[in-house]
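the four lines:
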Amino acid sequence: MTDGPNENRDAPKEDISSPNVKLEEIARAAGVSPSTVSRILNGSARVLPEKQRAVEEAIARFNYRPNVLARSLASGRTATIGVLTQAVSSPFYAEWLRGIEESLYEPGFTPIFVSSRWNLDDEKARLEELIARRVEGVILLHAQLDEPSLAEYARHAPMLVLGRSLHNGPALAGLPIDNLKGARDATRHLIEEGHREIAFIAGPSSHEDAIERLDGYRIALEEAGIGFDAGLVEQGDYLETGGLAAMERLMARRPTFSAVFCANDQTAYGARLAMFRRGVRVPEDISLVGFDDLPTSSYMTPPLTTVRQPTFEIGRLAAQGIVQMIRKQSISLSPVPLTLVTRETTRRIAPPASSGAQPG
Amino acid sequence: MTDGPNENRDAPKEDISSPNVKLEEIARAAGVSPSTVSRILNGSARVLPEKQRAVEEAIARFNYRPNVLARSLASGRTATIGVLTQAVSSPFYAEWLRGIEESLYEPGFTPIFVSSRWNLDDEKARLEELIARRVEGVILLHAQLDEPSLAEYARHAPMLVLGRSLHNGPALAGLPIDNLKGARDATRHLIEEGHREIAFIAGPSSHEDAIERLDGYRIALEEAGIGFDAGLVEQGDYLETGGLAAMERLMARRPTFSAVFCANDQTAYGARLAMFRRGVRVPEDISLVGFDDLPTSSYMTPPLTTVRQPTFEIGRLAAQGIVQMIRKQSISLSPVPLTLVTRETTRRIAPPASSGAQPG
DNA sequence: TTGTAAGCGTTATCAG
DNA sequence: CTGATAACGCTTACAA
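prediction for all of em together
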């Protein structure tokens, strides 16, 4: 069945597929209307098998690939989800991203990653760009914006904030992470191992989770009847350099302590180096505990005892959560529990003589 | 100057900005035509100051944000650049991404990150998605596709491949990284320090750079008159686990060696742990050298001697390169040189008695 | 089941 | 300098 008079002679080498073929050309080549091609593309209606075949053949021959922009504009759906991270290159966020990405592909969404570099203005700017891109939902990894502002942005697309507790609603929700309990468990472990003087290198006080971790440390101490001693706390910045400097200050000040609990693993890396430089052995002289369980922490020398965040799992939860929100399904987000991973940077020590510690 | 009869009474609380305002509404509110609004938005023509002001005021009041999709469809420009990475969560790629992202914002492009998980089919799929999104250019971090396939994809948008040497043209170019020289330098350093039996833990043989690193190691050995000994080479996989296993095999086989050169830092982390488990001291018993200089390598215990890749800089080069290609400007990409960073996992040893080594 | 035609929200070409 | 008006490439009623 031939179409027109010279239809076949006209395009001798059409399989060379010009860079950007359009739906209309496929329709023409297959001898059907544009709508039919569209239907086949979207499976939105049944089409006669022969036309189906003709269209598919044309698509393959021309190497046709629908223009996502046009498609989204026409349909009103972009099938994209914005993922705002504070720093793409942070080893910590990397795992979250992986969990998010993997779980997003299945329901058919494409993540668009942007990063705000721990900067509030950047955070706003990136968020607006995502909205301008008409993402259908947004996952924020540690937003700095306050709740009212988030709610305002959430009017455009549902948002899920990781590591934050919010008044959850259909458009804005937070997936809190139980940092306090994690820090308390880690500190308790140290106490159970006989440590009484435990130093702490804190994270930036502007971070909610850093504060929670400090609180967990303090509470464990108080619960054990040891009491919080501000003299054992040094300020870090969640980075290796900060941990190194803080540990140096701590050692220079010479308070007595047998263990150091760091607000995150990167801080612990820095502290570890400071001790190595001074010839302080871990864990023989000082026990060390981190927080996060970064992939490399189990390869430290010795392997680091730390609080594990199920990062990949958190990513999955976030991805599933935002998809449900987009689908207007209600979701319930319970705080993610963290678990202590006991490795080799902590050791039991004999408690110094008697003290007021209670049994059990 | 009033517009219509009840224009003002009609919208009492329009500043509540409905989720998605469109250009047309701004035009109406400002009393101008859509084209004028568009002109102001793009600065594509001069407009009377008063209209300019009226429009800007309306934009602010309605909190209007142009629809990127519509804009791109109409203009044919998306101002996006696809960045295909093998693994978003790899600590190695993270730094490249940062360099790329930072240098892309300035020329006004937005990166779209996707990852192919070291899988060829995924690589193709992600690339097609990027093309369907009409990105204006693509940066690939270690493509697995062969050159003809890359060239085919490059017909849609210019592509720049990091870590690969290609026949550079206007649409497809590679930014090679001098892995061979880096590996040779590292091996030479070990030789200069007196080591003669140097083991090597290789990367996956499917990776071009892994092969180059092995070659560099071999060449340095041969140049020094030591000769390559396959018995000193173990297979790794660029991951910590592979390094750990390889080192264990190596130690179990008991060939004599005083140093181990690992194809990348992650491998070295694994090897380090294997040695720690066996009580083998670094560098007193065995010297260790890595490759890449990941951010945490300088915080290892002891800090790792390794070959530094100027990752952030490479990211910059890539970003600038792809932008130039998009602008049809010619670019010249010279191989990126790597430098050895001598830290504390290597030590000088007394060469065992005499040997055929030449002076100098 | 299939085709026609009217958008989707902007930009861009032309007159004026 | 500004306003109609026609694209941009696809989806989607509405008819047939």
